[in-house]
Amino acid sequence: MAGYDKFQTDMAKGRFTFPAAILICLFLRIITGNEWQDAINLLVCALTAYLLIEINTAFTLIRTRSTLHVSFYVILSTACLFLHSFQYAVFVPLAFLAAIFQLFSSYESPHPAGSIFHAFFFIGLGSLLFPQLLYFVPLFYLGMISFRSLSLKSFFAGLIGLCVPTGSFSAMRSITTK
C-alpha cells in the first residue's frame, strides 16, 4: 500500500508525467510537423508551459509543487492537430497568461493601478488577434473585487489599458492607409 501512495504522490506532483508529456509532445510534433511554422507553434507552446509553471510557483496556486496541469496543457495542445498550423492566435495564451499574472500581482496591493493597467493592456493586445478574449473583461473586474484591488483609479486604469492597444492599432492603420 505504501508503494501505491508514493506512486500516486509522484504522479500528482508531475515527476514522471511532465517529462513523459514533453517527450510525447516532441515525438508527435516531429512526426506531424513539416514546416518552419510548426517550430514556432512548438516554441510558443513551450513558453506557455513555462509561464504556467512560473505563475504556479510565484502565486502558489496549488499548495504542492505540481506540473500535472502543465502536462495536461502540453498533451492537449499536441493532441489537437488543428493547432499545429500557424495562426496568429497561437500568441493569445501568452497574452492571457501575462494578464492573469498582472491581475494576481495586484492582490491586496496598496497601489494596484499599474498592475491592473498592464493586465487589461495584455487583454486588449490579445483581443487584437482573438476578439473573443474581451469576454473575460467582466471576469477580470470581478476578480479585482475578490482580490481587493478595485478602486475608481484601478477601474479607469483597466479601461485605459484595454483601449491603448486598440487605439494604437487604429491610429497606425489610419496613418498607413493614407
Describe this structure in words.
The chain is mainly α and 178 residues long. It has two domains: 1-86, no CATH class; 89-178, no CATH class. The chain has eight helices and no strands. The model has no long low-confidence stretch (mean pLDDT 83).
List keywords for this structure.
mainly alpha, 2 domains, 178 residues, 8 helices
Q: What spatial form do the alpha-carbon principal axes imply?
A: flat
Number of strands: 0
Radius of gyration: 19 Å
Overall pLDDT metric: 83
Q: Which band does the percent of strand residues land in? A: under 5%
Q: Percentage of helical residues?
A: over 70%
Order of helices and strands: HHHHHHHH
Would you identify the regions where 5 or more consecutive residues have pLDDT less than 50? none
Class based on secondary structure composition and strand pairing: mainly alpha
User: What is the rounded distance between the termini?
Assistant: 74 Å
Biggest sheet statistics = none
Helix count equals 8
Number of domains: 2
Oligomer kind: single chain
Ordered list of secondary-structure elements with their pairings:
Elements: H1 2-13, H2 17-32, H3 36-59, H4 68-79, H5 92-105, H6 113-129, H7 137-146, H8 152-177
Helix pairs in contact: 2-4, 3-4, 3-5, 5-6, 6-8
Overview in brief:
The protein is mainly α and 178 residues long. The protein has eight helices and no strands. The chain folds into two domains: 1-86, no CATH class; 89-178, no CATH class.
